[in-house]
Amino acid sequence: MTVHLPRKITRRAFLSTSSKVVLGVSGVLLGNTALFYYGAVHGQKQDEQATREIPSSFVKVGQVEHLQAMTGYEKVYYNATIEDAWVKTPKQGFVYVTKDERGALVILSPACTHLGCSVEPATEAQRNRKKDLFFWCPCHGAEFDTVGNAVGMALPRLEKYHPLIIEGHVYVDISMPEK
């Protein structure tokens, strides 16, 4: 029977093999670090783009400059999608955009708080007859001022929407009126 003794390793062979192993492990670690860093940076960019995306229930009312220069009121029509869990409901309608006495934008729902009919702007004759009158309900005669408060009746005010300014445009979340 022949006995094979282990081959004698020279110092040069040991150092060469060891340095190849160290360089290989270093390369793998450096590559993984670079991949994790790239993934983190790329994921952060996607998160930033997702935060810039405007939800489908937000409605663009107009440009800030245009609405600030407006006098009286403006009727703005919209198409939106209200998402409730996995149910998406299309919604069409309009809002009234006016300004309060300080010049701040007021965005009102047209739904009367009594019967839900759509309020309309008062005519000049109606405004001359009643000082604070601005909107009125054709269904039962409820009257509201420029910021949606009931005039002469004990009714809740018209629902308001909080204006959000995003990149020079005014938006409202049509799914969340202020009561």
Helix content: 25-40%
- Global Rg: 34 Å
> Main beta sheet: strand number and arrangement?
4 strands, antiparallel
Oligomer: single chain
* N-C termini distance: 98 Å
The total of helices stands at 3
Q: Identify the strand order in the major beta sheet.
A: 2-3-4-8
List low-pLDDT spans: none
The ordered H/E elements are HEHEEEEHEEEEE
Tell me, briefly, the overall form. rod-shaped
User: How big a fraction of the residues is strand?
Assistant: 25-35%
Protein structure class? alpha+beta
Average of per-residue pLDDT values: 85
Structure description:
The protein is an alpha+beta fold. The protein has helices at residues 11-52, 64-69, 124-129; strands at 58-63, 74-84, 87-99, 105-108, 120-121, 135-136, 143-144, 160-161, 164-166, 169-173. The chain contains 3 helices and 10 strands; from the N terminus they run αβαββββαβββββ. Strands 2-3-4-8 form a 4-stranded antiparallel sheet, with no helix packed on it. Strands 1-10-9 form a 3-stranded antiparallel sheet. Strands 5-6-7 form a 3-stranded antiparallel sheet, with no helix packed on it. A hairpin with a 6-residue loop joins strand 6 (135-136) and strand 7 (143-144). The longest helix has 42 residues, at 11-52. It is rod-shaped and about 120 Å long.
